[in-house]
Amino acid sequence: MNIKVLYTAVILSLAGTHVFAGSAQPLILDSPELKTEMWLQLQREGNTASKKVQTATPAERELAMQRLLDSYKHPIPEYYGEADGGKFKR
């Protein structure tokens, strides 16, 4: 009885793998929407993620925290205008 269940499970899993392998989409697609969906899928699944763990040194973490704390020293302006910096093309 257990052998039949195991055999059926193996056959179904192989059949399912064959169906999904045949429906794989290429990475280069014609439509920008489809390209975006493909990149989001790659990111979500993490299959192509780097195996190298990226870490920051204590000095880098300290500098990042200091930049964050320094950003609170500047008040948020009520509005942004041309006189505040930058030019707008009209």
Overall mean pLDDT: 75
Spell out the helices and strands N to C: HHH
Shape: elongated
Strand content: under 5%
Question: Main sheet?
Answer: none
Q: How many E strands?
A: 0
Our Rg estimate from Cα atoms comes to 26 Å
Our count of helices gives: 3
Could you estimate the helical fraction of the residues in percent? 40-55%
Q: Which stretches are poorly predicted, pLDDT < 50 over at least 5 residues?
A: none
Alpha-beta content class = mainly alpha
Cα end-to-end separation: 78 Å
Description:
The chain has 90 residues and is mostly helical. It has a domain at 16-47. It is 54% helix and 0% strand. It is built from 3 helices and no strands. The longest helix is centred in the first third of the chain and has 21 residues, at 2-22. The model has no long low-confidence stretch (mean pLDDT 75).
Summarize this structure briefly.
The protein is 54% helix and 0% strand.
Outline the fold blueprint:
Elements: H1 2-22, H2 32-45, H3 58-71
Features:
single chain, 90 residues, mainly alpha
